[in-house]
Amino acid sequence: MVIQKICCLGAGYVGGPTCSVIALKCPNIKVTVCDKSVERINQWNSDKLPIYEPGLDDVVKQCRGRNLFFSTDIETSIVEADLIFISVNTPTKTIGNGKGRAADLKYIEGAARMIADIATSNKIVVEKSTVPVKAAEIIMKILRANTKPGVEYQILSNPEFLAEGTAIVDLVEAERVLIGGEDTPEGQKAVQALCWVYEHWIPAKNILTTNTWSSELSKLAANAFLAQRISSINSLSAVCEATGADVSEVARAVGRDSRIGPKFLEASIGFGGSCFQKDILNLIYLSECLNLPEVAAYWQQVVNLNDYQKTRFTRKVIESLFNTVADKKIAVLGFSFKKNTGDTRESPAIYVSTTLLDEGAKLHIYDPKVEHDQIYYELLHPQVTNEPELVRKNIEIHDSAYSAVSGAHAIVLCTEWDEFKSLDYKKIYEVMMKPAYIFDGRKILDHEALLNIGFHVQTIGKRL
Ligand code: NAD
Ligand code: UGA
User: Is 19 a catalytic residue?
Assistant: First the structure.
């Protein structure tokens, strides 16, 4: 089967960039990315895309209107597509059974029901969202229970491994593409059809095929392994601070062993982002449901350690400022969960900021890419505070780091944006209250130089 038209349900951080790159690399395929949100689709069709991702603007400009379309007309795109990606959100459940841990599959189910209602010809349905193992069975059940006469479905698992901030490079030069399908002649034909799409630019040796369940579990496993490395190095950062060892030196020495490798050993204020915590909680819930409590407890510790790291850092800020930050002006530099993205989902900066606000601090926040409204949304959310108006009075959002730090008692650096490395810290020192404190939650600043200027400096995994 040759794929001529692709539809993607979900124009988010995954659906948008992934399908833009498919359109770029497969000019012979028409790709339509759909979303229920009119606002999101309008943004994809405008000059200001809904997400900031280096290189994305260029790719969209090259393909939009040629073979890449963003649309709310879900019906037409489903009808004409040979292959449909489901790329909708799969957040952690907030109510009911499995609350706080299980993945909420209501959007996956909604997408499957939409396809079943609309499709009038055979479709390959590809699960791109991150889901618990056996989620493809749910999609299959819904589709096959509602099939119109003569319509057949194949369901594939094709999890996405891109990281935000490097999505375009990750997609264009993917180390691996994973495709899981049913071990039947029709299932294997569908797998081959999707392989053909990726083979437009990915070497065949980088395309791995497995059964559906292995593919689903591999995605959860990959994120769990990555997060586990961060919690491991963060646990050692606490040992370093207590002993005088330096966590960067430890990471360098440990990572030199090729069996361990140097990547993802950067100690920090804790990992954030929409997926690591959600996917590990998903794995924990799955393990509990499978009656594997020891496995669940093992992965739970990765999340616990991450919470501990965020708490430990924030406590250090408060204790250093004579155990009170009430009415003190604190500059928070960086609000996104990592550099090169405007995404704030599960950003450690949210925990740091809310804790400081609870202690009565006045926050002056600057992030190069996060919209002001997004910062207010995160800090005034009903789950975060029941006094939004009071909190609003204690937050000021700035358009430059220099204006945020003016008159501040302390700087708390939460995101590793490159521009924070080259600020003029002498000038900053002059305009701050004394003693002037810097808490470098990302280990990116030149600590010796800061000490020489006169700052009191604290960082992660190293005594200064
Ligand atoms: P997102 O929230 O940015 O986007 C999801 C979009 O789906 C939303 O715009 C929503 O309106 C839309 N949607 C929901 N139901 C729909 C329906 N029935 N029809 C059309 N649109 C619908 O989410 P995301 O960050 O793109 O993540 C999507 C999935 O990919 C999640 O399962 C996530 O775990 C996984 N993932 C995310 C990343 C990442 O970096 N963000 C990386 C790999 C995998
Ligand atoms: C992560 C994975 O890297 C992707 O492969 C995966 O596809 C994606 O999750 C997903 O499923 O959503 P992402 O969350 O976008 O990607 O970004 P990462 O680069 O993994 O960073 C996650 C968090 O860990 C950030 O807060 C980052 O600052 C932190 N981190 C990362 C560290 O604290 N130390 C490190 O060494 C690396």
Answer: no
For residue 435, is the peptide bond before it cis, meaning its omega torsion is within 30 degrees of 0?
yes
Number of domains in the chain: 2
Q: Name the percent of the chain lying above pLDDT 70.
A: 100
Per-residue pLDDT of 277-321, as tens digits, reads 999 999 999 999 999 999 999 999 999 999 999 999 999 999 999
Last residue of a domain, one of 139, 173, 202: 202
Calculate how far, in angstroms, residue 107's C-alpha sits from the geometric centre of ligand 1. Answer: 9
Question: What pLDDT, on a 0 to 100 scale, did the predictor assign at position 390?
Answer: 87
State the ligand closest to the CA atom of 51.
Answer: 1
Beta-ladder partners of 364? 331, 396
Give 116's contacts (C-beta < 8 A, 6+ positions apart). Answer: 142, 143, 145, 146, 147
Domain that holds residue 12: 5-202
Which of 34, 275, 289, 414 is catalytic? The answer is 275
Atom of ligand 2 nearest to the CA of 14: 12
Q: Which residues contact 241 (CB under 8 A, 6 or more apart)?
A: 460, 461, 462, 463
CA of 402 to the centre of ligand 1 (A): 35
For atom 42 of ligand 1, which residue has the closest CA? 162
Q: What ipTM was reported for this prediction? A: 0.98
Domain end position, chosen among 166, 181, 202: 202
Question: How far does residue 276's CA lie from ligand 1's centre (Å)?
Answer: 15
